[in-house]
Inverse folding.
């Protein structure tokens, strides 16, 4: 794929972009080029409308009866069904609940309780910290009955063995955007008799995932990244249908009970995905997410992936053409091996990102020296990416010192 080679080419690409009209569904401040949609997606008009509806037309007038009359109780399942096609799952295999961290715990603990004679969970060193910490916490909770091993990416496939009961991997790496071959690694885990849990946080909404074809047991992921659910919007979890009733989450709570309103003393898990619920969900956050998910009804993920690849290629090609920039690509050069963001290292990465943000180009910085730029195809234009690199070149041509001021703890 050849990226556009000029401003005019970018304008032509925007004019024939099948996703171009989707940008109008978002509220994006003029003058801002938002390249951080991989971390926190942009606000949709429907998120505003749905939240307002829940506040003014549901909670306000109908109070507690809203749980039934406005279908609040089933919202976690209805939103799960909307996410299901984006990851190749069936509608009754996905639930929206809690955070990605909590869902990881629920599923890894369920796997632990049904592990047989095996005692090991394998994950990648350098995986997103919460994934590793949740597993380490689980090992501590097990009183030493299980162990967590972290191995470099190149060794992951070979190190899955007959002591491994669960493999936990992130499909698109949060720093480098490098992709795992989901199908191949899942097959490898299964060949060794291990189950697998995929973290799809940086995948869902950026590229088509087919968790069903791979027959993976478990998946989790965020909805506030490419799904634009809003800051801290509830996460999703997937459990392959044949396992749903065979296992139970280590976090047992009342809304996952077979008959929550019987208020009995003994826990009896609900059938299907309902047992993976915990307590009362944060309903206003569900309203915002509900609004953001409506967009996907009319979108072909192949268009999304194609645009994401061209935007990223355009960005990388133009960055490579900047003379003496000091920027080094930290993501795979080959589009097929990347998710939808691009990481670069720069010795003064923090100051560089601050200077870019001051110019309206918003990406992020990850210590010690990585600057990340995300390409969310639903609301970014080709011309935005062209402009962003023009501004990057201008910033690099000037002094970076003034950006030291105002250094914050937020990374
Ligand atoms: C963003 C992200 C998370 C976030 O987890 P939270 O519980 O929502 O804070 C988890 N895993 C990966 C791989 C991520 O990229």
């Amino acid at each position: 794929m050849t990226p556009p080679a000029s401003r005019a080419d970018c304008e032509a690409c925007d004019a024939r972009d099948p996703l171009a009209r989707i940008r109008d569904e978002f509220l994006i401040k003029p003058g801002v080029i938002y390249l951080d949609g991989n971390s926190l997606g942009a606000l949709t008009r429907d998120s505003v409308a749905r939240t307002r509806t829940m506040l003014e037309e549901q909670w306000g007038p109908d109070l507690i009866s809203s749980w039934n009359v406005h279908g609040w109780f089933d919202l976690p399942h209805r939103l799960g069904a909307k996410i299901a096609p984006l990851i190749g799952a069936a509608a009754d295999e996905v639930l929206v609940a809690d955070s990605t961290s909590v869902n990881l715990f629920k599923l890894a603990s369920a796997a632990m309780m049904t592990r047989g004679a095996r005692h090991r969970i394998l994950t990648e060193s350098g995986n997103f910290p919460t994934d590793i910490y949740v597993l380490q916490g689980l090992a501590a909770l097990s009183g030493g009955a299980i162990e967590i091993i972290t191995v470099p990416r190149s060794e992951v496939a070979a190190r899955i063995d007959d002591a491994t009961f669960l493999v936990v991997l992130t499909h698109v790496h949060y720093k480098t955007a490098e992709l795992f071959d989901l199908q191949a690694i899942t097959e490898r885990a299964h060949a060794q008799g291990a189950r697998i849990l995929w973290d799809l946080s940086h995948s869902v909404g950026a590229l088509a995932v087919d968790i069903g074809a791979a027959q993976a047991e478990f998946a989790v992921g965020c909805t506030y990244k490419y799904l634009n659910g809003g800051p801290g919007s509830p996460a999703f979890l997937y459990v392959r249908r044949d396992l749903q009733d065979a296992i139970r989450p280590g976090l047992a709570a009342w809304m996952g009970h077979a008959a929550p309103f019987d208020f009995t003393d003994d826990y009896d898990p609900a059938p299907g995905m309902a047992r993976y619920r915990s307590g009362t969900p944060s309903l206003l956050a569900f309203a915002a997410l509900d609004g953001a998910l409506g967009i996907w009804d009319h979108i072909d993920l192949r268009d999304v992936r194609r645009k994401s690849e061209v935007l990223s290629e355009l960005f990388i090609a133009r960055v490579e053409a900047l003379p003496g920039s000091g920027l080094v690509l930290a993501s795979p050069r080959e589009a097929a091996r990347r998710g939808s963001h691009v990481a670069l290292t720069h010795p003064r990465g923090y100051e560089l990102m601050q200077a870019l943000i001051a110019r309206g180009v918003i990406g992020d910085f990850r210590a010690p020296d990585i600057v990340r730029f995300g390409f969310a195809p639903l609301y970014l234009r080709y011309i935005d990416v062209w402009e962003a690199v023009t501004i990057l070149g201008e910033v690099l041509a000037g002094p970076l010192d003034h950006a030291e001021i105002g250094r914050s703890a937020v990374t």
In short: DSSP finds 14 helices and 13 strands in the chain. The radius of gyration is 22 Å.
